[in-house]
Task: inverse folding
């Protein structure tokens, strides 16, 4: 287990720096927020959009902080699966990662590709579906070069993106000087809570740090530092851009357009500057999210394959020593199916958000159980106050469950809930069939079982030697 935690497949890798990990988290987060959900949520909440971004940040910080702390205690690749599988239940861990993989591949990836294609539609006179497919294919081919190259590309794109967004905010806010929304513009509590529930999706990229424990330099410190750096940067950018894109709306206006960022930019910039802005910011932001999502899907599957739940052949590298082409191609094909399925963007956004939310429930339960199990006198490298992290985990768990209820209720009312039980049932059936197969093939071994106490002691010994 020590070797697994230190390397990937026994092969030492060059580590991701704190700066690279922070940029990775920022890039994974921003695309889905400002440039996709601003239009979806803004269509019902209007000029209250910036406030909803701010409110959504609070419970998500509380929920992500304990999860990021897990990366400090037990650095590992594929943390979204690794922690629940070792400290809660292999079945619960697998169902969570199964639902996430399906919703991310069939929902989130197509959502980002379609949104990027819509932004670039004026520059490429081809159908949205074809352009979406070309965008998806480009990032699929890019990820064949492996983690090190992709992280370098991701870091470069994020630096340019943040500079572009800061310029947009700096120019637009003094021009529009948005007023506070009036009471008559309030969209009602149902729309407000639904909007906040959807906007929680925009902060999940900050959680990506726990997926790269093995690949991070000094993960005991840098994983949590990357979260603390990326989360406030993203929050400030979200609120700033949301204020900028609602500034052109007159008082008593209740609805934003489908693409409020482009509407605001058209008013603010000359045509040639607007063209550069669209290429520079929205396309770049969504590109970092598509690119990063491939990384998360690959990393999330690492230990699922290691444990034998997914077949080992998915890890074969062939002539590409830095990537896993079979697994990557599988995610690519699932995303292509999502592109051609014809689901509407709101449905894709809702299921994608649920995929992330369902990951958080077992992760927070794991933290609470682990924090209680470990005695105070043991030298545990908690990054900040244990009491604060424990309180955050309880509040985060409450809010996550609340948001799940809101989204499920909305899907039920709209008649879009039918896929949910099928996705979980398919995962359960696959798990039971695979477990039975492994029991027959390896009768002397217990599949999907680990000694928690020994794992904790092993990790302490590793920390002592480091």
Result:
């Amino acid at each position: 287990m020590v070797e697994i935690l230190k390397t990937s497949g026994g092969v030492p890798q060059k580590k991701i720096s704190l700066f690279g990990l922070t940029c990775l988290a920022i890039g994974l987060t921003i695309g889905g927020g400002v440039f996709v959900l601003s239009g979806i949520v803004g269509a019902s909440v209007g000029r209250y959009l910036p406030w909803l971004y701010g409110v959504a940040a609070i419970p998500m910080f509380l929920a992500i902080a304990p999860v990021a702390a897990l990366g400090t205690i037990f650095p590992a690749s594929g943390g979204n699966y690794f922690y629940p599988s070792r400290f809660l239940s292999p079945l619960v861990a697998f169902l969570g990662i199964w639902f996430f993989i399906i919703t991310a591949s069939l929902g989130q990836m197509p959502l980002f590709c379609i949104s990027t294609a819509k932004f670039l539609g004026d520059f490429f006179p081809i159908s949205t579906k074809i352009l979406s497919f070309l965008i998806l294919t480009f990032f699929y081919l890019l990820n064949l070069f492996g983690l090190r190259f992709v992280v370098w590309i991701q870091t470069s794109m994020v630096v340019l993106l943040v500079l572009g967004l800061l310029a947009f905010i700096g120019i637009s806010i003094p021009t529009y000087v948005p007023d506070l929304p009036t009471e008559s513009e309030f969209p009602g509590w149902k729309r407000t809570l639904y909007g906040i529930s959807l906007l929680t999706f925009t902060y999940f990229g900050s959680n990506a740090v726990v997926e790269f424990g093995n690949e991070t330099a000094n993960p005991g410190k840098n994983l949590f530092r990357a979260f603390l750096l990326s989360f406030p940067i993203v929050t400030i950018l979200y609120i700033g851009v949301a204020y900028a894109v609602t500034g052109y709306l007159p008082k008593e206006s209740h609805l934003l357009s489908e693409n409020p960022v482009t509407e605001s930019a058209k008013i603010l910039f000359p045509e040639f500057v607007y063209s550069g802005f669209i290429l520079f910011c929205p396309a770049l932001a969504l590109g970092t999210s598509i690119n990063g999502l491939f990384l998360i899907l690959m990393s999330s599957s690492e230990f699922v394959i290691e444990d034998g739940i997914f077949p080992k052949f998915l890890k074969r590298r062939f002539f590409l020593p830095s990537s896993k082409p079979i697994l990557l191609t599988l995610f690519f094909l699932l995303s292509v199916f999502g592109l051609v399925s014809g689901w509407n963007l709101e449905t894709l956004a809702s299921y994608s958000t649920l995929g992330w939310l369902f990951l958080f429930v077992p992760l927070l339960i794991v933290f609470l159980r682990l924090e209680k199990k470990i005695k105070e006198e043991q030298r545990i490298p908690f990054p900040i106050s244990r009491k604060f992290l424990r309180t955050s985990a309880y509040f985060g768990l409450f809010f996550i469950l609340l948001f799940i209820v809101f989204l499920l209720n909305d899907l039920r009312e709209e008649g879009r809930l039918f896929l949910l039980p099928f996705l979980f049932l398919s995962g359960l059936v696959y798990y039971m069939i695979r477990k039975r197969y492994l029991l027959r093939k390896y009768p002397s071994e217990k599949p999907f079982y680990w000694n928690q106490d020994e794992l904790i002691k092993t990790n302490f010994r590793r920390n002592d030697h480091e």
Summary: Residues 90-120 form the longest helix (31 residues). The chain is about 70% helix and 0% strand. The CA atoms of residues 164 and 308 lie 44 Å apart. Residues 2-465 form a domain with the Amino acid/polyamine transporter I fold (CATH 1.20.1740.10).
